[in-house]
Design a protein that fits this description.
By secondary structure, the protein is of the alpha/beta class. It is 46% helix and 20% strand. Among the domains are: 108 residues, OB fold (Dihydrolipoamide Acetyltransferase, E2P) (Beta Barrel); 140 residues, 3-Layer(aba) Sandwich (Rossmann fold); 60 residues, no CATH class. A hairpin with a 4-residue loop joins β4 and β5. The longest helix has 116 residues. It is elongated and about 170 Å long.
């Protein structure tokens, strides 16, 4: 008890008072909308989650409301969802409109909603509205036909499979592809296909497939509720598919499901298995065309070979007949020529002998004349050589001078004053010392200092 006049509350008393105010203000039923986050389950089957403002990150700065769905009420809520076509799933990221009793939870000093009812039409309306807005934006940007305009490789055998790696959809696709006769190469690129992180995960997986240079992308997911499949109505995912440089084949949900991803993809199919079967059919069709073309080429080649063989045989027979005729004709001509040769040969032989004798006589006479002329030339050359013999030249007064080292002295400039020189003359060698040098150009060299003057 405080000493002042203002009332002081016990904690339990204060919380009870707040609970009374909440119940008085909001009554027994309160409807609220928000995006589901942090879903968990207790061993008793109860569900706990939070509702946050749609479009926020759901961090601690965002408005949030704790929700409890007891197992007894969960069965009632599930029955209502089933009656609505089972198109809404209470899962991460789903926008919900739910009803419950607003209560205080004293142990954690918080207000929470004890859920008792759900409005499936609200969630379906949000999903439908988002789908329509996304389609309108993609259409306005001219993106709905972009991926569909890409040409599919022939054959498209390098496949990028974008889905949850451990899902039944992945297993169905792999079974369909592996049962074919085509040698596919499948690159499995794991991605989340539902929940708040699915959009970014799928976009990243598509870009990875493009970087891996696949021939075609298989974007698949098995069946589920409309809220489970809502990520495939994302405008962001639609833009990523439309702008991909690789054809995208989709197989999403059941036969009746048709998403934004299906609209912008190159080719959409009712199920993952159907999408895989379409790729198999495309590759097998190319194989069949190649096999048919190969068979046609083989058949044409065989026909051409047979025709060529027949033509060759016909030409060989004609050539044989023609050759025989030609040989017979040439034999006749040869006989005639032999007769002519036999008659003309003696006369030709006599004429050839006479001509040969005449030519031999002329050749002998010409040869003697050439030999005589050649001998005269040789004699004259011998006389010239004898005339230029060094010994004879020295007899006529010529001499040869060498320096002290044996080098030949050709001109006055090759020696200097005081040099010793050896002069070879007829009958011996004269050794002398240079005391003066007189050049032909009137330049004299002083014997004492070796300097020239004009």
């Amino acid at each position: 008890m405080g000493s002042g006049t203002e009332k002081t509350w016990e904690i339990g008393e204060l919380l009870d008072a707040v609970a009374g105010l909440v119940e008085h203000r909001f009554g027994g039923r309160t409807w609220v909308t928000g995006e589901l986050r942090s879903l968990s389950r207790s061993p008793a089957g109860h569900r706990y989650f939070e509702l946050v403002e749609p479009g926020t990150d759901g961090d601690h700065g965002s408005a949030r409301l704790a929700v409890t769905l007891f197992d007894s009420q969960r069965q009632r809520v599930n029955a209502k969802v089933i009656r609505a076509g089972n198109k809404v799933q209470i899962a991460e990221g789903t926008e919900l409109r739910i009803c419950g009793q607003l209560r205080t939870y004293a142990p954690q000093s918080r207000i929470q909603l004890n859920m008792t009812d759900i409005d499936p039409a609200y969630t379906l309306g949000v999903i439908s509205q988002r789908r329509e807005l996304a389609l309108a934006a993609l259409t306005a940007a001219g993106l709905t036909e972009l991926n569909g305009s890409l040409s599919l490789a022939e054959p498209a055998i390098r496949v990028g499979l974008v889905t949850s790696r451990s899902s039944a959809a992945a297993a169905d696709v792999l079974d369909e592809i592996q049962s074919s006769t085509v040698g596919f190469e499948v690159l499995c690129i794991d991605a989340r296909t539902q929940g708040r992180d699915a959009e970014l995960s799928l976009v990243a997986a598509l870009r990875t497939a493009e970087e891996l240079r696949v021939d075609v992308v298989l974007l698949v997911r098995g069946g589920g509720s409309s809220s489970d499949l809502s990520v495939f109505d994302s405008e962001t995912l639609g833009r990523a598919i439309a702008r991909l440089s690789v054809p995208v084949f989709t197989g999403i949900g059941h036969e009746t499901d048709h998403s934004v991803a299906d609209v912008v993809a190159h080719s959409s199919h009712k199920t993952p298995t159907a999408a895989a079967a379409a790729i198999v059919r495309s590759a097998e069709a190319v194989e069949h065309r190649l096999a048919s073309l190969t068979a046609s080429i083989s058949s044409a080649a065989e026909g051409a070979a047979l025709r060529a063989a027949a033509s060759l045989q016909s030409r060989a027979r004609a050539a044989t007949v023609a050759a025989r005729r030609h040989v017979a004709h040439e034999e006749q001509l040869l006989g005639v020529r032999l007769e002519r040769v036999a008659t003309a040969a003696p006369r030709a032989l006599d004429a050839a002998r006479a001509l040969t004798d005449d030519l031999a006589s002329r050749a002998a006479s010409a040869s003697r004349l050439r030999v005589e002329r050649a001998q005269q030339v040789v004699d004259r050359q011998a006389e010239l050589v004898a005339a230029r013999d060094p010994a004879r030249m020295m007899e006529l007064g010529w001499s040869v001078a060498h320096g002290a080292s044996g080098e030949l002295i050709r001109r006055a400039g090759d020696v200097a004053l005081g040099d010793s020189i050896r002069t070879t003359v007829a009958g011996g060698t004269v050794v002398s010392e240079v005391t003066a040098i007189e050049a032909d150009d009137a330049t004299s060299i002083d014997a004492r200092n070796g300097r020239g003057s004009r």
